[in-house]
């Protein structure tokens, strides 16, 4: 079969990224320009600032991705772009660039669901990985357990009813004064803490329901901090981070493995920014061993937002003949599995 080379573009939140990926699995370049520094002082992503920065960066980042891949625009077979979910102003920047290129170069345009992209990061990491498998997608905006039946067929088995896992990490990090984004900082601080030192609550739903709820856990951490402050007692930030992280990981791993059991699937994967969490990766490995379950997770740079994962997902959509036209619009609340047009 002829090689298919796809240019991926991702601007759904605060990373401007472009990548060139061959046959859905081989990354020729993956340029990620993060705006974290700009948003740090506000404690979170400011949508207007994100859009403006994407406008400045999108073309240079695309050009750099093509240069690093050693390929010209004309040699690209298709352009894959995230069109939802995400911040509408941010999405529109990448989408407009992708549509302009598709029109000018007369290349097919493929619209990609951001979460589908996160899942596809696993195809890059494991060149033999094929569906079906169960994927836990945990990012700043999502906590989903997804039954990946095929490259383009998904069933959501469980999801966050309130705060997403990454959101909980970010809020707790802010409360203990660690800054933004909180996930990596909590991960680091927790390495010097004792995860059993404070018991924070875990929410499990009855009757095999695999949803998540992290807002009660976040409130429990805030209450603990307030109580300690009111009593004038010192607390260990490392112990709070480790105990909070342990509670989140407990629930995530338990529900993911339960989903695999219910669906009788022996392959599970992690995806999304929180999938970079060292405790989550380790704990999943430990609890899956002895159950004859294969565990996959992408390297950290492929867990957080990047365009290589978007190009990979676009490849499988492209193979199915799912091409978008130039009317493709940004859909901030796009649902997984809702079609690509
Ligand atoms: O997937 P992502 O880059 O962007 C979204 O699509 O949301 O995920 C960002 C989220 C943030 O909430 C960040 O704190 C979290 O992923 N994160 C982590 C780690 N690295 C990033 N959470 C826990 N541990 C980490 N090592
Ligand atoms: Zn993401």
Write a structural description.
The chain folds into two domains: 5-120 and 303-319, 2-Layer Sandwich (Nucleotidyltransferase, domain 5); 131-298, 2-Layer Sandwich (Nucleotidyltransferase, domain 5). Helix content is 44%, strand content 19%. It is built from eleven helices and ten strands. The longest helix is centred in the last third of the chain and has 27 residues, at 237-263. The protein is globular and about 65 Å long. Zinc ion binds next to helix 4.
Beta-strand segment tally: 10
Hetero groups: 5'-O-[(R)-(carboxyoxy)(hydroxy)phosphoryl]adenosine, zinc ion
Order of helices and strands: EEEHHEHEHEEEHHHHEHEHH
Instruction: Outline the low-pLDDT stretches.
Output: none
Q: Give the CATH topology of the largest domain.
A: Nucleotidyltransferase, domain 5
CATH class of the largest domain: Alpha Beta
């Amino acid at each position: 079969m002829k090689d298919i080379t796809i240019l991926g573009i991702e601007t759904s939140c605060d990373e401007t990224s472009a990548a060139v990926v061959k046959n859905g699995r081989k990354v020729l370049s993956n340029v990620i320009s993060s705006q974290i520094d700009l948003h740090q002082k506000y404690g979170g992503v400011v949508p207007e600032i994100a859009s403006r920065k994407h406008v400045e960066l999108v073309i240079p980042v695309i050009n750099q991705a093509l240069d690093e891949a050693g390929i010209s625009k004309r040699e690209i077979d298709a352009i894959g772009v995230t069109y939802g979910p995400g911040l509408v102003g941010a999405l529109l920047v990448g989408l407009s660039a992708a549509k302009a290129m598709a029109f000018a170069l007369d290349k097919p345009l493929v619209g990609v669901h951001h979460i589908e992209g996160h899942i596809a990061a696993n195809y890059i990491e494991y060149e033999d990985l094929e569906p079906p498998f169960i994927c836990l997608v945990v990012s700043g905006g999502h906590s989903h357990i997804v039954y990946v039946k095929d490259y383009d067929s998904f069933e959501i088995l469980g999801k966050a009813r309130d705060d997403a896992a990454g959101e909980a990490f970010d809020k707790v990090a802010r409360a203990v004064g660690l800054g933004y984004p909180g996930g990596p900082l909590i991960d680091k601080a927790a390495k010097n803490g004792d995860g059993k030192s404070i018991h924070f609550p875990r929410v499990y739903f009855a009757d095999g329901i695999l949803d998540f709820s992290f807002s009660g856990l976040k409130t429990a951490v805030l209450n603990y901090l307030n109580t300690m402050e009111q009593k004038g007692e010192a607390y260990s930030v490392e112990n709070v981070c480790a105990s909070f992280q342990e509670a989140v990981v407990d629930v995530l791993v338990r529900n993911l493995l339960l989903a695999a059991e219910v669906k009788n699937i022996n392959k599970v994967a992690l995806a999304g920014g929180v999938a970079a969490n060292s405790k989550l990766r380790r704990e999943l490995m430990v609890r899956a061993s002895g159950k004859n379950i294969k565990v996959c997770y992408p390297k950290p740079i492929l867990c957080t937002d990047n365009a290589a994962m978007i190009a990979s997902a676009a490849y499988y959509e492209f193979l199915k003949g799912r091409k978008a036209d130039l009317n493709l619009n940004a859909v901030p609340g796009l649902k997984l599995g809702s079609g690509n047009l």
